[in-house]
Design brief:
single chain, 172 residues, mainly beta, globular, BacA/B, 0% helix, Cell shape determination protein CcmA
Length: 172
């Protein structure tokens, strides 16, 4: 009523001085388990508990899912699905932390951490994987290796047979 909705930031000439670069913004809530950002702030989209979002998400560097997100394909730098959060669809990220549920296709070019309450259903490709006791993966898991393209599992690889008329230089 008598208070302004957003306090003015302190000016460099004020008696308290400028806010330090690493200080949290007034009114900004910290997300538990989120990595601390040392550089400029990332563009973050938080889908809160009880909120459901369908469609595409663009230009979000960090996506935090506490509610439900359904999307055909999202690209971001970081994905965090909290306990109780659900992501359905496809997502490609650098790093992901999963304490809720992902149902779909997940590609992680960096590290994937599945917490004890995390469930991954579908297909996942990742470079590094950490699964806490109780974390679940149901579906197909493929590890990304440096310098080598992803290859199918040995049981899925087709057998190479020489073409008719071609011989082999190897002894039987």
């Amino acid at each position: 009523m008598g208070r302004t909705p957003f306090p003015a930031p302190p000016s460099p000439n004020s008696p308290t001085g400028a806010m330090p670069a690493g200080a949290p913004r007034p009114g900004a809530a910290a997300v538990p388990g989120a990595p601390r950002q040392t550089g400029p702030e990332r563009r973050t989209l938080v889908v809160g508990r009880g909120i459901s979002v369908q469609g595409s998400v663009q230009d979000a560097e960090r996506l935090v899912v506490e509610g439900t997100v359904e999307s055909s394909m999202i690209q971001a730098t970081e994905l965090q699905v909290t306990h109780g959060g659900v992501f359905r669809g496809g997502v490609e990220v650098e790093d992901a932390e999963l304490a809720g549920t992902i149902d779909g296709t997940l590609t992680v070019n960096g590290s994937l951490t599945i917490r004890s309450t995390g469930r991954l259903i579908g297909k996942v490709k990742c470079r590094r994987l950490q699964v806490e006791d109780g974390g679940q993966i149901t579906g197909q898991l493929e590890m990304i290796t440096d310098g080598a393209p992803a290859r199918p599992l040995a049981s899925e690889a087709p057998k190479a047979e020489p073409a008719a008329g071609e011989g082999s230089s190897e002894a039987p």
